[in-house]
Structures are given as C-alpha cells and as structure tokens.
Amino acid sequence: MTKQTPAERPRGRRTPAADPAPDMTKQDIKKAEAEKQDVGKQDVKTQDIKKQDMAPRRGAAVDLRIYSAVVNAVMSHRLPPGTRLGEAEFCELYDVSRTTVRKALQRLAHDHIVVLRPNRGAVVASPSPAEARDVFAARRAIEREIVPLVIRHVTPASLQRIRTALEAEEQARHSGDRAAWIRLGGEFHLLLAELAGNAVLQRFMVELVSRSSLIIAVYENPGVPMCGNHEHDDLLALIEKRDSAGATALIEHHLEEIEARLNLGAPERKLSLAEALSGC
C-alpha cells in the first residue's frame, strides 16, 4: 500500500491530535463564575479589614492634630481664655467622631489647657492670679535645671537650632506679628527643654508654657512686650560660653521680668482658721 501525500488525503477528515477540546458544560461555567464571585468577596472583606485597622490609627492621628492645633492657637492668643470649644465644630472641621474629639479634649484638660464642664462642654481655661504665680514659680524651678543640662549637652547642631529659633522670633517681632512673636517665644523655651535631654522636664515644660500663654492672654498689659528684645540672645551667648551659672541666673531673671509685666494685682493674704472664724 502506497503512502498518501497530504494533498491526496480525503478532505474533511482530521487527525485525532487536531480535534478541539470538548466545550465547557453550563454547570462548569456556573461553577467558574461562582468561584470568581467568592474571590471578589474575599478581596472586599480584606479591604474592609484593612480599613478597620486603619480607622483607629487615623483617629489617633486626628486626636493629636486637634490637641496640637488648640495648643498652638492658645499660645498664639487666637483662642482666648473662656472660649467655648464645641464638639460638633471639631467633628465638622476634622471629619471625625465625637469619640476622637473627646479624647483630644480630655488630653487638653489633663494639661490644664481647657476645662471640661459637666453637661456644658469644654472651654479654654481661665487661670487665677494665684495660679499664675504658681505657674511661673514652677517654671523658674524647672528652667533653672534645664539650662545647665543644655550647656552640658551642647553641640554645634543644637546651637544652630537655637540661632534659627531666635531669627524666626526676631523676624516676627520686626513684622509686628505679636501673636507669632509670643508663640515663638514660648517655642524657644520648649526648644531648650528638648535640648536638655530630659524627657520628663520637657513634658512639664509643654504644659507650663501653654499655661503661661493663657496667663499672658488674661493678665498682660497692652502694649508692653512680654520678653526683652535681647534676653534670649543674651542667653544664647552665655550658652555658647558654657557659662552655666550666668545662664541660670539670666533665665530666672528673665522669667521674673515676664511675671512682673503681668497685671496680677497684690497677692491675697491667706487667713488663718482663727481669723476666718472670728466674729462667727
């Protein structure tokens, strides 16, 4: 039998290798579509879980943003004492829940920046004259410890940071931006606390500087500068010389001058129990 050439083979016949694969049944198609839907649902669930995981982190970040914004506004005197801080306004401004806002307000209350009044909301704190004196006494005690630590840990980089802070402060003073000048003046003291390398003292200073700004807002004499024009510059010069005793004396004098410029009135004399009850 002779072998047929491809041209001589009958048309319409195919070799078994050329036969197509059998078509998918309807059942197979439905099964494949169901599997795709399951995969899609799993992807959606994974995305939902990721969103849920991100939500607490976002809330914490916004909590810190609200806290920082209020502190900065207080230090710049844009939020004067007695200002009501409505939860609904924060919710609208930051697109967060009341729970997140309340966490920020509780932290502000812990640092004595705001007062939480039952059933009446939060307000920016209004310190009394006695509290004002206590705050400045505490600042003198703490900053007497901070300045020697700054000198002990001083580096060329830290000196440059102080110079940069002073330049910003001087620029605000020359431009007549009193709010920015006061805020930057407070930040100068916070920078020293940071450079001291003591986290506990730094934490105390954050609260005390914020409370000092409130006190200045309530009791400052209009038109009187709260910081001498060159006191911070003089302090930097003493730090550069590593003059610990001189720098400590200057920071104490500097804080006494700030307090003296406030209109706190005469200190109230506390009565003894016998004096308080006499004639009753």
Characterization of this structure:
The chain has 280 residues and is mostly helical. The chain has helices at residues 26-75, 87-94, 98-110, 129-152, 156-175, 178-195, 199-219, 231-240, 244-260, 273-277; strands at 84-85, 114-117, 121-124. A three-stranded antiparallel β-sheet has the order 1-3-2. The N and C termini lie far apart (143 Å).
Q: H/E series, N to C? A: HEHHEEHHHHHHH
Task: Round the Cα radius of gyration to an integer and report it.
Answer: 35 Å
Uncertain spans = 15-22, 48-56, 271-278
Quote the average pLDDT: 79
Major sheet: order of its strands?
A: 1-3-2
Structural class: mainly alpha
**Total beta strands:** 3
Q: N-to-C terminal Cα separation, in Å?
A: 143 Å
Largest β sheet strand count, sense and barrel closure: 3 strands, antiparallel
Helix content: 55-70%
- The percent range for strand residues is under 5%
Shape: extended
Count of DSSP helices?
Answer: 10
What would you say about this model in short?
The protein is mainly alpha-helical. Helix content is 66%, strand content 4%. It contains ten helices and three strands, in the order H-E-H-H-E-E-H-H-H-H-H-H-H.
Record the SSE blueprint.
Layout lengths: L25 H50 L8 E2 L1 H8 L3 H13 L3 E4 L3 E4 L4 H24 L3 H20 L2 H18 L3 H21 L11 H10 L3 H17 L12 H5 L3
Antiparallel strand pairs: 1-3, 2-3
Helix pairs in contact: 1-3, 1-7, 4-6, 4-7, 4-9, 5-6, 5-8, 6-7, 8-9
